[in-house]
Structure formats: structure tokens, C-alpha cells
Amino acid sequence: MEIQRQLFVSLSLLLVAFGLLMVHSASVTSWPTHFERVYLSRHLVFLAIGLTAAAIAATRPARFWYHIAPWLFALTILLLVLVMVPGIGSRVKGAQRWIRLAGISIQPSELAKIALPLMLCRILENYRARLSHLFFGTVPYAIPVAITVPLVLIEPDLGTAVFLIGGSALVLLAGGWPIRNFLFGTIAAVPACLSILVMKPYQRQRIVGFFETWADFDAAPYQLQQSLVSLGSGGLLGVGLGRGWQKLSFLPEANTDFVFAVIGEELGLLGTFSLLALWCGVYLSGLRMLSRLDLRGFSFVAGFVLLTQVVGQALLNVAVVTAMVPPKGISHPLISAGGSNLIVSLLSLGIVVSLSRDCVVDEDRT
After folding, report:
1. Cβ atoms within 10 A of the Cβ of 236, count?
2. What are the two backbone dihedrals, phi and then psi, of residue 51, each rounded to the nearest 5 degrees?
3. pLDDT of residue 195
């Protein structure tokens, strides 16, 4: 088990090192100044915070996260409320999602990716006997989601809201929530989802642009055009690290949301497949690390969900960059330029290591 844990940590650190390299390369502009050094310095600051948080989290006993879940959830809700208060929350490009403290931006909705699953896992542990009941097996889980998701939606941040709903569903699925309840929950959520789409015309335009990418490339959104050009120009081995042209003011968000396209151009298909292989290694070693735990217990479900969320976000970013899903601004964990997502991703992996040390073993396997 200790070997699996060491492998998991080693592969995660390889991703961190790879991300540091690509952030520096992708930050170079067509007019080289101190700009790229500023991006690298900021990334290093967030990276130091994230690694410190992950190291501390990894040393905590597994039950620590069970006991702290309500307090962490309450703190997250408080921050989500404060971010909407004028003078406290910071608005960028029409969205009010950040709180700036001492020159550092904090995005509370990122913290919700940890707080909400942990809270749901705690409720799952406490109300497992009522899980199959249609009402009492649904309402206790719906309340935290119903509090968190609307606060994220009004920022507005539809992508993170959908991500939180997906993570919540994953908790219930791993915890043994009856399929019947999933069906009722899905039916109940359809009107709300449709009303959201009707209220946001630009979201419909994103979907239209996504289909245009494959029907008429010239009519596709500019970001997707440049992303696919970057990936295509890399070929098998790429043009060489640091020698990419698309990042020189052609590819938007080259060092954040579309850093995978830079990897494709500079390191080619070999580089992108190597990155995906690293993620597969992290996921498989993480699952192996958790495999001895009670498969319905708090530690396994929480660890499984947090690990799947991080890896799932990486795959979702790849899907956006390669035009496999409609465009949505989403960072590539551990690879994109640092911020709240980098800290939360590292913290999530640290919590997974902590949860893997739970002494509870599945009785069916002993």
C-alpha cells in the first residue's frame, strides 16, 4: 500500500513539474518582456501555497475530514455570499467570482469542489440507513446542493455549477443511492436546467459555435479555430519546446485554459499522449491506493470523488481544447497557470492521500 501511495505522489509531482515547464513556455509573447516572468512568478507563489496545503492535508488522519466537513462547507458558503458583496467581490469580464486579498485572488467556487463532496459524504455516513427512502434519502442530500449551486450560478458560473452537480451525483452513485432516486432527481432538474439555458443566450451561442466547428471551420469560434490549428501544426513530435508560434498572441488564454493546445504544438502528439498517460497513472494508482477501504465508507467515497473530479476536469479541458464538447473556460489541473484551481487541485490530491490511510478495511476482503 505504501508503494502505491509513493507512486501516486510521484506521478502527481511529475504533473506539477510538467505544468511548471509549460506555464513558462506558454507565457512567452510576441514582444518578450518581463510579462512571462510575472506569470511564472505568480504560478510559483500559488504552487508553493498548494504544495504546502497538500502536504499538511496528507498528514491529517482520515477522520479529520469527516469532522471538519461542516465547518469547511459553512466557510465556503460564507465566501460565496461575500463574493457578491460590492467592494469585497471582484468583477472580471462580467463575472463576479473572486475575492482579492493581499494581491492574491481567491475563487470560492473552486473551494466548493472540495467542501460540497465532503459534506455530502458526511451526510451519507450519518443517514445510510435511510438511503433507500425516497423522501428522507433525498432531502438531506439536496439541501447542501440547493444552497451551493444557486450561489455559484448567480456569479455567473454555469460550468462550475454543472461540475458541482456532477460531483454530487458521483457521491450518491458511489455511496449506493438507488437508481430510482436518480431518475426522480433528473426529472425534477430538467425544468431548472432548461430555464437556465433560456435565460443565457450566449450559452446557446456557444453550443451553436461548437457544431459550426465541425460543419464550417471558418464559422467556428476564434478560440477553437486557433486551438485546432495549434494541435494540428505540432504533428507527431511537435515543433520543439518553447518554439510554438500560436501562443504568440494568436491563441487566447495560451497559458491557462488552452495550455493543452500549446503542448500539442510544441511537443506534438507524443507530448499530449504522454500527459494523458500521466493522468491515467495518477488515477489508477489513486484507485489502487483507496481499494482496501470500505467501498461504501466515508473515506473511500470522498477519496474516489475528489480524485475523479481532478482527473475528470483534466479530461474535460482536453475535450474543450479538441472541440469535442462546447467551449467553456476551464483550467487544466496542475498544468494551467496557477490560481485557486491549482491550490484546490493539489489540496484534493493531498486529502486523497490522507483518506487512503483510513484503518477501516472492507470486511468482505479480509
Report:
1. 8
2. -65, -40
3. 56
First to last CA, the chain: 15
Distance of CA 238 to the CA centre of its chain: 27
* One-character DSSP codes across 18-56: HHHHHHHHHT--SS-STHHHHHHHHHHHHHHHHHHHHHH
pLDDT tens for residues 108-134?
Answer: 899 999 999 999 999 998 887 777 777
- Residues 290-340 pLDDT 10s: 998 988 889 999 999 999 999 999 999 999 888 887 777 788 999 988 788
At residue 106, φ and ψ (nearest 5 deg) are: -115, 130
280 within 8 A of 287, measured Cβ to Cβ: no
DSSP character for 132? T
The pTM for the full model equals 0.88
Distance, CA of 60 to CA of 58 (rounded, Å): 6
| Domain segments of the chain as ranges | 2-365
8 A C-beta contact, residue 120 and residue 172: yes
Query: How many C-beta neighbours within 10 Å does residue 123 have?
Result: 18
Return d(Cα 118, Cα 99) in angstroms, integer: 23
